[in-house]
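Thought: the user asked what Carbohydrate ABC transporter substrate-binding protein, CUT1 family looks like in 3D. I have the sequence; next I should run the structure tool and report back without guessing.
Action: structure_tool
Action Input:
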Amino acid sequence: MRTPRLLAALAAATLVLGGCSVGGDDDASSGDTTVTFRLWDDQVAKAYEESFAEFEKRNPGIKVNVELVPWADYWTKLPTDVASGTAADIFWTNTSNFGLYADNNQLLPVGDDLGAEKAGWTQSVVDLYTRNGKLWGVPQLWDSIALYYNKDLVAKAGVDPANLSWDPTGVADTFLPAARRLTVDSAGRTADQPGFDPDKITQFGFNAAFDSQAIVWDFVGSNGGTWQDGDPFNFADQPKTVEAVQYVVDLINKHHVAPSAADTNTNGDKALQLFTQGKIALFQSGPYHLKSVQEGAGFPWGLAPLLKGPAGRVGVVHGVAAVASAKTRHREATVKVLRWIGSAEGARPIAAGGYAFPGVTAAQPAFVEYWQKLGVDLKPFLDSSTGTTFPAPVGPRVGAGGTATNPILQQVFLGQLGVAEGLRKAQDAANQAIKG
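Observation:
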Protein backbone atom coordinates (compact mmCIF):
# COMPACT_ATOMS: atom_id res chain seq x y z
CA MET A 1 0.00 0.00 0.00
CA ARG A 2 1.12 3.54 -0.81
CA THR A 3 0.20 6.12 1.83
CA PRO A 4 -0.67 8.76 1.00
CA ARG A 5 -1.14 7.67 -2.61
CA LEU A 6 -0.56 11.02 -4.34
CA LEU A 7 2.02 9.35 -6.58
CA ALA A 8 0.45 9.51 -10.02
CA ALA A 9 3.50 10.14 -12.21
CA LEU A 10 6.64 8.81 -10.60
CA ALA A 11 9.91 8.79 -12.50
CA ALA A 12 11.41 5.45 -13.45
CA ALA A 13 14.70 6.14 -11.70
CA THR A 14 16.05 8.49 -9.08
CA LEU A 15 15.93 12.04 -10.37
CA VAL A 16 17.95 14.78 -8.73
CA LEU A 17 16.71 18.34 -9.02
CA GLY A 18 18.97 21.33 -8.62
CA GLY A 19 22.29 19.50 -8.82
CA CYS A 20 21.84 17.81 -5.47
CA SER A 21 24.60 16.03 -3.61
CA VAL A 22 23.73 13.62 -0.83
CA GLY A 23 23.89 14.55 2.82
CA GLY A 24 24.07 18.32 2.53
CA ASP A 25 27.55 18.84 1.09
CA ASP A 26 28.63 22.47 0.87
CA ASP A 27 29.54 24.48 -2.20
CA ALA A 28 33.16 25.44 -1.50
CA SER A 29 33.24 27.97 -4.34
CA SER A 30 30.39 30.06 -2.94
CA GLY A 31 30.67 29.31 0.75
CA ASP A 32 27.00 28.31 0.84
CA THR A 33 25.60 25.68 3.18
CA THR A 34 23.55 23.12 1.26
CA VAL A 35 20.62 21.33 2.87
CA THR A 36 19.21 18.34 0.99
CA PHE A 37 15.50 17.52 0.95
CA ARG A 38 14.22 14.13 -0.26
CA LEU A 39 10.69 13.16 -1.30
CA TRP A 40 8.96 10.67 -3.61
CA ASP A 41 6.38 12.73 -5.53
CA ASP A 42 7.49 14.49 -8.70
CA GLN A 43 4.54 16.89 -8.88
CA VAL A 44 4.93 18.13 -5.32
CA ALA A 45 8.69 18.45 -5.92
CA LYS A 46 7.87 21.32 -8.30
CA ALA A 47 6.06 23.13 -5.51
CA TYR A 48 9.03 22.67 -3.18
CA GLU A 49 11.35 24.09 -5.80
CA GLU A 50 9.21 27.22 -5.85
CA SER A 51 9.07 27.36 -2.07
CA PHE A 52 12.81 26.92 -1.59
CA ALA A 53 13.60 29.60 -4.18
CA GLU A 54 11.87 32.09 -1.88
CA PHE A 55 13.56 30.60 1.19
CA GLU A 56 16.98 31.11 -0.38
CA LYS A 57 16.19 34.77 -1.10
CA ARG A 58 15.39 35.28 2.57
CA ASN A 59 18.29 33.17 3.84
CA PRO A 60 21.41 34.03 1.85
CA GLY A 61 24.14 31.48 2.41
CA ILE A 62 21.76 28.51 2.58
CA LYS A 63 20.78 26.50 -0.48
CA VAL A 64 18.21 23.71 -0.54
CA ASN A 65 18.54 20.94 -3.09
CA VAL A 66 15.61 18.63 -3.75
CA GLU A 67 16.12 14.90 -4.31
CA LEU A 68 13.33 12.97 -5.99
CA VAL A 69 13.44 9.22 -5.32
CA PRO A 70 10.56 7.20 -6.82
CA TRP A 71 8.26 5.36 -4.44
CA ALA A 72 9.36 2.03 -5.90
CA ASP A 73 12.90 2.68 -4.67
CA TYR A 74 12.29 4.99 -1.75
CA TRP A 75 11.95 2.55 1.13
CA THR A 76 14.77 0.29 -0.01
CA LYS A 77 17.21 3.15 -0.51
CA LEU A 78 16.36 5.09 2.66
CA PRO A 79 17.36 2.50 5.31
CA THR A 80 20.76 2.06 3.70
CA ASP A 81 21.33 5.80 3.49
CA VAL A 82 20.21 6.43 7.07
CA ALA A 83 22.44 3.66 8.40
CA SER A 84 25.48 4.95 6.49
CA GLY A 85 24.89 8.59 7.33
CA THR A 86 24.37 9.58 3.68
CA ALA A 87 20.64 10.27 3.91
CA ALA A 88 19.32 13.69 2.99
CA ASP A 89 19.28 16.24 5.81
CA ILE A 90 15.47 16.31 5.58
CA PHE A 91 13.27 13.63 4.05
CA TRP A 92 9.62 12.71 3.68
CA THR A 93 8.23 9.80 5.63
CA ASN A 94 4.89 8.14 6.31
CA THR A 95 3.57 6.61 9.51
CA SER A 96 4.47 3.09 8.43
CA ASN A 97 8.17 3.86 8.44
CA PHE A 98 9.12 6.72 10.75
CA GLY A 99 8.80 4.88 14.07
CA LEU A 100 11.82 2.66 13.52
CA TYR A 101 14.06 5.67 12.87
CA ALA A 102 12.64 7.60 15.81
CA ASP A 103 13.13 4.70 18.21
CA ASN A 104 16.72 4.24 17.05
CA ASN A 105 17.57 7.92 17.61
CA GLN A 106 18.19 8.48 13.91
CA LEU A 107 15.96 11.56 13.72
CA LEU A 108 16.00 15.00 15.27
CA PRO A 109 13.05 15.55 17.59
CA VAL A 110 11.63 18.61 15.82
CA GLY A 111 9.44 19.55 18.75
CA ASP A 112 12.58 20.65 20.64
CA ASP A 113 13.22 23.44 18.13
CA LEU A 114 9.77 24.10 16.70
CA GLY A 115 7.53 23.76 19.72
CA ALA A 116 5.92 27.14 19.14
CA GLU A 117 5.17 26.44 15.48
CA LYS A 118 3.29 23.17 15.95
CA ALA A 119 0.11 24.97 17.06
CA GLY A 120 -0.28 26.00 13.43
CA TRP A 121 -0.06 22.46 12.06
CA THR A 122 -2.83 19.95 11.38
CA GLN A 123 -3.35 18.34 14.76
CA SER A 124 -4.23 14.87 13.48
CA VAL A 125 -0.91 14.71 11.61
CA VAL A 126 0.98 16.08 14.62
CA ASP A 127 -0.53 13.22 16.62
CA LEU A 128 0.53 10.66 14.00
CA TYR A 129 4.17 11.73 14.26
CA THR A 130 4.28 12.06 18.04
CA ARG A 131 5.92 9.01 19.59
CA ASN A 132 7.18 8.43 23.11
CA GLY A 133 6.15 11.96 24.03
CA LYS A 134 8.18 13.65 21.27
CA LEU A 135 7.23 15.16 17.93
CA TRP A 136 9.47 13.85 15.14
CA GLY A 137 8.09 15.39 11.95
CA VAL A 138 6.80 18.62 10.42
CA PRO A 139 3.41 17.86 8.79
CA GLN A 140 3.56 18.47 5.04
CA LEU A 141 0.48 16.90 3.47
CA TRP A 142 -2.65 15.20 4.70
CA ASP A 143 -5.60 13.42 3.19
CA SER A 144 -8.96 12.11 4.31
CA ILE A 145 -11.62 10.02 2.56
CA ALA A 146 -14.81 11.01 0.74
CA LEU A 147 -17.06 9.64 -2.02
CA TYR A 148 -16.50 10.67 -5.64
CA TYR A 149 -19.60 10.09 -7.74
CA ASN A 150 -20.61 10.15 -11.39
CA LYS A 151 -23.48 12.65 -11.52
CA ASP A 152 -25.06 11.15 -14.65
CA LEU A 153 -25.05 7.57 -13.35
CA VAL A 154 -26.44 8.32 -9.89
CA ALA A 155 -29.16 10.56 -11.38
CA LYS A 156 -30.22 7.82 -13.81
CA ALA A 157 -30.41 5.27 -10.96
CA GLY A 158 -32.17 7.67 -8.56
CA VAL A 159 -29.40 7.42 -5.97
CA ASP A 160 -28.56 10.21 -3.53
CA PRO A 161 -24.82 9.72 -2.82
CA ALA A 162 -24.93 12.08 0.18
CA ASN A 163 -27.20 9.78 2.20
CA LEU A 164 -25.83 6.27 1.96
CA SER A 165 -25.46 3.99 4.97
CA TRP A 166 -24.13 0.46 5.13
CA ASP A 167 -25.25 -2.05 7.74
CA PRO A 168 -23.93 -5.63 8.02
CA THR A 169 -27.29 -6.75 9.44
CA GLY A 170 -29.09 -5.31 6.42
CA VAL A 171 -31.67 -3.54 8.57
CA ALA A 172 -30.51 0.03 7.90
CA ASP A 173 -28.56 -0.63 4.71
CA THR A 174 -29.34 1.91 2.00
CA PHE A 175 -25.95 1.55 0.34
CA LEU A 176 -26.13 -2.04 -0.96
CA PRO A 177 -29.50 -1.54 -2.70
CA ALA A 178 -28.07 1.61 -4.30
CA ALA A 179 -24.91 -0.22 -5.41
CA ARG A 180 -27.07 -2.92 -6.99
CA ARG A 181 -29.06 -0.34 -8.95
CA LEU A 182 -25.78 1.19 -10.11
CA THR A 183 -24.32 -2.13 -11.32
CA VAL A 184 -25.28 -3.01 -14.89
CA ASP A 185 -24.56 -5.96 -17.20
CA SER A 186 -24.11 -5.94 -20.97
CA ALA A 187 -27.86 -6.48 -21.50
CA GLY A 188 -28.70 -3.40 -19.45
CA ARG A 189 -29.97 -5.36 -16.44
CA THR A 190 -29.03 -4.05 -13.00
CA ALA A 191 -27.79 -6.29 -10.18
CA ASP A 192 -31.17 -6.11 -8.45
CA GLN A 193 -33.08 -7.39 -11.51
CA PRO A 194 -33.83 -10.99 -12.58
CA GLY A 195 -31.44 -12.35 -15.18
CA PHE A 196 -28.54 -10.09 -14.22
CA ASP A 197 -25.28 -11.67 -15.47
CA PRO A 198 -22.35 -11.10 -13.06
CA ASP A 199 -19.93 -12.37 -15.72
CA LYS A 200 -20.83 -9.57 -18.13
CA ILE A 201 -20.76 -6.43 -16.02
CA THR A 202 -20.21 -3.16 -17.89
CA GLN A 203 -20.77 -0.77 -14.98
CA PHE A 204 -20.00 -1.29 -11.29
CA GLY A 205 -21.67 0.42 -8.38
CA PHE A 206 -18.68 0.80 -6.06
CA ASN A 207 -14.90 0.39 -5.79
CA ALA A 208 -14.66 -2.20 -2.99
CA ALA A 209 -11.08 -3.49 -3.03
CA PHE A 210 -8.13 -4.32 -0.80
CA ASP A 211 -7.32 -0.64 -0.40
CA SER A 212 -6.55 -0.17 3.28
CA GLN A 213 -6.83 3.60 3.52
CA ALA A 214 -9.79 4.26 1.23
CA ILE A 215 -11.87 1.14 1.87
CA VAL A 216 -10.86 -1.40 4.51
CA TRP A 217 -10.06 0.79 7.51
CA ASP A 218 -13.04 3.06 6.85
CA PHE A 219 -15.49 0.15 6.91
CA VAL A 220 -13.77 -1.27 9.99
CA GLY A 221 -13.87 2.08 11.79
CA SER A 222 -17.46 2.83 10.84
CA ASN A 223 -18.47 -0.55 12.26
CA GLY A 224 -16.70 0.13 15.57
CA GLY A 225 -13.78 -2.23 14.91
CA THR A 226 -10.05 -1.76 15.44
CA TRP A 227 -6.86 -2.77 13.62
CA GLN A 228 -4.18 -2.34 16.29
CA ASP A 229 -3.85 -2.33 20.07
CA GLY A 230 -0.72 -0.27 20.60
CA ASP A 231 1.93 -1.63 18.25
CA PRO A 232 0.52 -5.19 17.97
CA PHE A 233 -2.23 -5.92 15.44
CA ASN A 234 -5.55 -7.14 16.83
CA PHE A 235 -7.94 -7.11 13.86
CA ALA A 236 -8.66 -10.85 13.90
CA ASP A 237 -9.70 -10.63 17.56
CA GLN A 238 -12.36 -7.99 16.90
CA PRO A 239 -15.80 -9.32 15.79
CA LYS A 240 -16.71 -5.87 14.44
CA THR A 241 -13.58 -5.85 12.29
CA VAL A 242 -14.24 -9.33 10.93
CA GLU A 243 -17.85 -8.34 10.21
CA ALA A 244 -16.78 -5.21 8.32
CA VAL A 245 -14.21 -7.01 6.17
CA GLN A 246 -16.77 -9.73 5.40
CA TYR A 247 -19.18 -7.04 4.18
CA VAL A 248 -16.57 -5.55 1.85
CA VAL A 249 -15.50 -8.93 0.45
CA ASP A 250 -19.15 -9.83 -0.16
CA LEU A 251 -19.59 -6.66 -2.23
CA ILE A 252 -17.09 -8.19 -4.65
CA ASN A 253 -17.70 -11.93 -4.59
CA LYS A 254 -21.32 -12.31 -3.46
CA HIS A 255 -23.16 -9.21 -4.64
CA HIS A 256 -20.91 -8.45 -7.64
CA VAL A 257 -21.25 -4.68 -7.29
CA ALA A 258 -17.49 -4.07 -7.35
CA PRO A 259 -14.64 -5.14 -9.67
CA SER A 260 -12.95 -8.49 -9.13
CA ALA A 261 -9.98 -8.54 -6.78
CA ALA A 262 -8.14 -10.36 -9.58
CA ASP A 263 -7.96 -6.95 -11.24
CA THR A 264 -7.64 -4.60 -8.27
CA ASN A 265 -5.12 -6.68 -6.29
CA THR A 266 -2.57 -6.38 -9.06
CA ASN A 267 -3.35 -2.81 -10.14
CA GLY A 268 -3.87 -0.29 -7.35
CA ASP A 269 -5.15 2.27 -9.86
CA LYS A 270 -7.67 -0.03 -11.57
CA ALA A 271 -10.68 1.37 -9.72
CA LEU A 272 -9.57 4.95 -10.46
CA GLN A 273 -9.24 4.07 -14.14
CA LEU A 274 -12.71 2.50 -14.23
CA PHE A 275 -14.22 5.53 -12.50
CA THR A 276 -12.70 8.02 -14.93
CA GLN A 277 -13.90 5.78 -17.81
CA GLY A 278 -17.46 6.03 -16.48
CA LYS A 279 -17.53 2.34 -15.46
CA ILE A 280 -17.81 2.84 -11.67
CA ALA A 281 -20.52 5.06 -10.26
CA LEU A 282 -19.29 5.54 -6.68
CA PHE A 283 -15.57 5.80 -5.94
CA GLN A 284 -14.54 6.15 -2.29
CA SER A 285 -11.05 7.60 -2.11
CA GLY A 286 -8.90 10.57 -1.08
CA PRO A 287 -7.89 13.99 -2.42
CA TYR A 288 -4.74 12.41 -3.83
CA HIS A 289 -6.91 11.46 -6.84
CA LEU A 290 -8.44 14.88 -7.43
CA LYS A 291 -6.13 15.84 -10.29
CA SER A 292 -6.48 12.44 -11.96
CA VAL A 293 -10.27 12.60 -11.82
CA GLN A 294 -10.39 16.23 -12.94
CA GLU A 295 -8.14 15.50 -15.91
CA GLY A 296 -9.49 12.07 -16.82
CA ALA A 297 -13.24 12.11 -16.26
CA GLY A 298 -15.25 13.08 -19.33
CA PHE A 299 -18.46 13.46 -17.34
CA PRO A 300 -19.78 15.67 -14.51
CA TRP A 301 -18.70 14.44 -11.10
CA GLY A 302 -18.95 15.53 -7.50
CA LEU A 303 -17.96 14.71 -3.94
CA ALA A 304 -20.18 13.38 -1.17
CA PRO A 305 -19.49 12.23 2.41
CA LEU A 306 -17.91 8.81 2.79
CA LEU A 307 -20.28 5.96 3.59
CA LYS A 308 -21.94 5.94 7.00
CA GLY A 309 -21.77 2.77 9.06
CA PRO A 310 -23.31 1.59 12.35
CA ALA A 311 -20.70 3.67 14.24
CA GLY A 312 -21.20 6.71 11.98
CA ARG A 313 -18.95 8.17 9.31
CA VAL A 314 -15.43 7.14 10.29
CA GLY A 315 -12.61 7.79 7.84
CA VAL A 316 -8.85 7.57 7.81
CA VAL A 317 -6.78 10.73 8.06
CA HIS A 318 -3.23 10.13 6.95
CA GLY A 319 -0.32 12.46 6.52
CA VAL A 320 3.20 12.84 5.22
CA ALA A 321 5.77 14.56 7.42
CA ALA A 322 9.27 15.90 6.84
CA VAL A 323 11.82 14.56 9.32
CA ALA A 324 15.45 15.49 9.84
CA SER A 325 18.40 13.12 10.03
CA ALA A 326 20.14 13.10 13.39
CA LYS A 327 23.41 12.90 11.43
CA THR A 328 22.92 16.14 9.55
CA ARG A 329 26.13 18.16 9.42
CA HIS A 330 24.17 21.41 9.29
CA ARG A 331 21.77 21.33 12.21
CA GLU A 332 21.13 25.08 12.37
CA ALA A 333 20.45 25.40 8.64
CA THR A 334 18.34 22.24 8.67
CA VAL A 335 16.16 23.62 11.45
CA LYS A 336 15.70 26.84 9.48
CA VAL A 337 14.46 24.83 6.51
CA LEU A 338 12.12 22.83 8.74
CA ARG A 339 10.75 26.05 10.19
CA TRP A 340 10.20 27.39 6.66
CA ILE A 341 8.26 24.34 5.41
CA GLY A 342 6.24 24.49 8.62
CA SER A 343 5.15 28.07 7.88
CA ALA A 344 2.22 29.30 5.80
CA GLU A 345 4.58 30.97 3.33
CA GLY A 346 6.68 27.85 2.90
CA ALA A 347 3.66 25.57 2.45
CA ARG A 348 1.65 27.86 0.17
CA PRO A 349 3.07 26.59 -3.18
CA ILE A 350 1.88 23.06 -2.34
CA ALA A 351 -1.61 24.32 -1.53
CA ALA A 352 -1.94 26.91 -4.28
CA GLY A 353 -0.88 24.39 -6.92
CA GLY A 354 -3.77 22.10 -5.95
CA TYR A 355 -1.46 19.22 -5.08
CA ALA A 356 -2.63 18.33 -1.58
CA PHE A 357 -4.05 19.62 1.68
CA PRO A 358 -1.03 21.25 3.34
CA GLY A 359 0.06 20.33 6.86
CA VAL A 360 0.10 24.03 7.77
CA THR A 361 -3.47 25.06 8.54
CA ALA A 362 -3.01 28.70 7.50
CA ALA A 363 -2.12 27.57 3.96
CA GLN A 364 -5.15 25.30 3.64
CA PRO A 365 -7.53 27.94 2.14
CA ALA A 366 -5.29 28.19 -0.93
CA PHE A 367 -5.88 24.51 -1.68
CA VAL A 368 -9.62 24.82 -1.16
CA GLU A 369 -9.73 27.91 -3.40
CA TYR A 370 -7.78 26.17 -6.17
CA TRP A 371 -10.46 23.50 -6.42
CA GLN A 372 -13.37 25.91 -5.90
CA LYS A 373 -12.27 27.69 -9.08
CA LEU A 374 -12.63 24.36 -10.88
CA GLY A 375 -16.11 23.85 -9.44
CA VAL A 376 -15.12 21.24 -6.85
CA ASP A 377 -16.29 21.61 -3.25
CA LEU A 378 -13.84 19.94 -0.86
CA LYS A 379 -16.17 20.10 2.14
CA PRO A 380 -16.62 16.28 2.31
CA PHE A 381 -12.86 15.87 2.78
CA LEU A 382 -12.75 18.63 5.39
CA ASP A 383 -15.71 17.16 7.27
CA SER A 384 -14.10 13.72 7.18
CA SER A 385 -10.88 15.07 8.65
CA THR A 386 -12.59 16.84 11.55
CA GLY A 387 -15.12 14.12 12.36
CA THR A 388 -14.51 10.76 13.98
CA THR A 389 -11.39 9.25 12.45
CA PHE A 390 -9.72 5.85 12.33
CA PRO A 391 -5.98 5.77 13.05
CA ALA A 392 -3.61 4.57 10.39
CA PRO A 393 -1.32 1.87 11.80
CA VAL A 394 1.82 3.10 13.53
CA GLY A 395 4.85 1.54 15.18
CA PRO A 396 8.55 0.98 14.52
CA ARG A 397 7.97 -2.11 12.36
CA VAL A 398 4.41 -1.59 11.18
CA GLY A 399 5.65 -1.58 7.58
CA ALA A 400 6.99 -5.10 8.03
CA GLY A 401 3.65 -6.10 9.50
CA GLY A 402 1.82 -4.74 6.49
CA THR A 403 4.16 -6.55 4.11
CA ALA A 404 3.41 -9.81 5.90
CA THR A 405 -0.37 -9.34 5.79
CA ASN A 406 -0.76 -8.17 2.20
CA PRO A 407 -0.54 -11.49 0.30
CA ILE A 408 -2.86 -13.15 2.80
CA LEU A 409 -5.46 -10.42 2.67
CA GLN A 410 -5.29 -10.42 -1.11
CA GLN A 411 -6.33 -14.08 -0.97
CA VAL A 412 -9.23 -13.09 1.28
CA PHE A 413 -10.44 -10.52 -1.24
CA LEU A 414 -10.11 -13.06 -4.04
CA GLY A 415 -12.37 -15.41 -2.08
CA GLN A 416 -9.62 -17.99 -1.78
CA LEU A 417 -9.56 -17.75 2.02
CA GLY A 418 -12.47 -17.27 4.39
CA VAL A 419 -12.52 -13.86 6.07
CA ALA A 420 -12.17 -15.05 9.67
CA GLU A 421 -9.50 -17.59 8.77
CA GLY A 422 -7.62 -15.14 6.57
CA LEU A 423 -7.65 -12.35 9.14
CA ARG A 424 -6.32 -14.76 11.77
CA LYS A 425 -3.47 -15.89 9.51
CA ALA A 426 -2.72 -12.30 8.55
CA GLN A 427 -2.68 -11.10 12.15
CA ASP A 428 -0.37 -13.89 13.24
CA ALA A 429 1.98 -13.13 10.34
CA ALA A 430 1.93 -9.39 11.06
CA ASN A 431 2.65 -9.73 14.77
CA GLN A 432 5.48 -12.15 14.06
CA ALA A 433 6.95 -9.70 11.54
CA ILE A 434 6.94 -6.72 13.92
CA LYS A 435 9.03 -8.67 16.40
CA GLY A 436 11.94 -8.30 13.97
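Thought: the tool returned a structure. Summarizing for the user.
Final Answer: Structure for Carbohydrate ABC transporter substrate-binding protein, CUT1 family predicted. The chain is about 40% helix and 15% strand. The domain at 15-143+318-379 is CATH 3.40.190.10 (D-Maltodextrin-Binding Protein; domain 2).
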